[in-house]
Amino acid sequence: MAQNYEKMKKKPVGKMIAYGIASVGLYAALLLNQSSITAIFTRGAWYAALPIATAFAISFIHGGFTGYFWSVMGIEATKKSLRTQPEEKRSYDRERPQPQPRLRARV
């Protein structure tokens, strides 16, 4: 019975909700202010980096929400196990085929 308590993990419901609210807020701010955002982003020069920074910020927040959502749902990525045995050494002293002689006729 005690072993089951050790294996159980606390689900990150609070983080999921926080990232979800932040994600909805960013999308809402982006969609409700399209004209002013477009005017700022199209000024040129250093303002051209703002769309890239905005995409990274939205992607980070939305990705965090998605990761926590799947953790709360109980779906986790599989963890690769480490190799217990080292790889077998291959011998490189193999017999190499001899090239076949060619007949070359000269006229």
Distinctive features:
single chain, 107 residues, mainly alpha, flat
Low-confidence stretches: none
What share of residues is helical?
Answer: 40-55%
* Overall average pLDDT: 86
Order of helices and strands: HHHH
Largest sheet, in brief, is:
none
What is the overall number of helices? 4
Query: Nearest-angstrom radius of gyration?
Result: 30 Å
Structural class: mainly alpha
Strand content: under 5%
- State the distance separating the first and last CA atoms: 92 Å
Shape summary = flat
Strand count: 0
Task: Describe this structure as you would to a colleague.
There is one protein chain. The chain has a domain at 11-73. It is 54% helix and 0% strand. The chain has four helices and no strands. Helix 2 runs antiparallel to helix 4.
Produce a short descriptive summary.
The chain contains four helices and no strands. With 107 residues, the chain is mostly helical.
Write the layout of secondary structure elements.
Blueprint: H1 2-7, H2 13-32, H3 34-41, H4 50-73
